Amino acid sequence: MLDASARPRVFHGWYIVACGFLSQGMRVGLGAQTFGFFFKPMVEELGWNRTVMTAALLARDLVRATTSPAFGYAVDRYGPRFLMTGSAVVLGISLMLLSQTREIWHFVLFYGVIGTFGIPGLSYSVISPTIAKWFIRHRGKATGIATAGLNVGAVLLTPLILFLIQTLGWRTAWFVLGFVPWIVVVPPCLLWLRRQPEDMGLLPDGDVRAVESESSEAAEPTNDRVGPVDEVSWTVAQALRAPAFWLLVAFEVLSGMSIGALIIHRIPYVTDLGFSDVQAGISFAIYGVCAFASKMAWGFLADRYSIWKLAIFALVGSAVSIFAGVGSSTIWQMYATFGVMYGLTGGSLVVIGPLLWAAHFGRRHQGTIRGVMSPFYLIASVGGPLFAAFVYDQAGSYDAAWRVFAAYFLVSAVLVWLAGRVRNVGAPQA
């Protein structure tokens, strides 16, 4: 174990956070959040309706649902290094192949099958358990910074994607974007990613262990904490028997349906209301900036206040923002509700969700436990967008779907409250 004098100047955990920040930016900037800009051009050229397009788009999540337990176990057993590097390589290949889409089965193959192995390794279901292993006291801050990459990537890549589509067409845009993850993600992941601090002779949060010698006793006082702040870690079997596990699964399912639908259908919804592609892009950018600020702020708050109370507040705020934004009559109403309000509340859920699981079940088996939960979330994230597409194809409007999803956020808040009330039921002894 390293003593204080041998400790690196910068704790290696922050390099893990940097890799998470970059990988999240690429996953979303080149994934579902910005796919809305490709949605209409592809539907119009290829002649598919929105339900068919959405079903093909979400085929990837159905395949991911079958592989996520294995990915979760692999994170705990082997670490994220080769999972994330390999996923970035495959993601680039998948994007390039999308430029050759002519038939629906092409899209299913390139995006839904090949793309399946390009996204899971870059998802926060891989990086968040890794961060949970590297941090305990600063876990909220570290998770907030890493997941903020989701919005930075989306905001920075949105102008590039719009420019490529409008000047070169959607096919060339896909091909060019395929190079981005190879350049941005692969090098740092190969250099910096490691499984857990103990593998490098370190402790979580950069804590140091006192050296039992006369020299260490005579050393000058330091503000660094001596010894790790540990926590009780649940096994998978213990977690599955706990009522809080299933309440949190239900929360992930309902909120996942709502978040998934908003990710894919938000941009088409803005243009369906009569606003331009540029205004839709501005609305998306406003959401991205606010969600970035939200992730940073809520991550810092989570290190100081109850994550359970923060989660309830964010879920209720998400519901209010969606209810207030349905049928926006002006672009300013859209900016204020789906942009600012939802960004500041719903934008934090990607931070809060992993922190709830880590706070409850500890760090040792976090990847495996999250892997068991992920199929439920992924199937729900497929069902939400499909429901929204079906409502649109039947009614010519998303309004009814948005009201249902806002109600789901409210129910999710109740589920988190209940999980917090029973979180000690079945807990292992420290």
Descriptive overview:
- There is one protein chain.
- With 430 residues, the chain is mainly α.
- It contains 21 helices and no strands.
- α4 (59-78) packs parallel to α6 and α20 packs antiparallel against α21 (399-421).
- The model is unreliable at 211-228 (pLDDT under 50).
- The protein has a single domain (4-218, 225-421), classed as Growth Hormone, Chain: A.
CATH topology: Growth Hormone, Chain: A
| Sheet with most strands | none
Q: Could you say how many structural domains there are in total? A: 1
Which band does the percent of strand residues land in? Answer: under 5%
Contiguous low-pLDDT stretches (5 residues minimum) are 211-228
CATH superfamily: MFS general substrate transporter like domains
Radius of gyration over C-alpha positions, nearest whole angstrom: 22 Å
What is the count of DSSP helices, taking H or I runs of 4+ residues? 21
Class per helix and strand makeup: mainly alpha
Distance between the ends: 23 Å
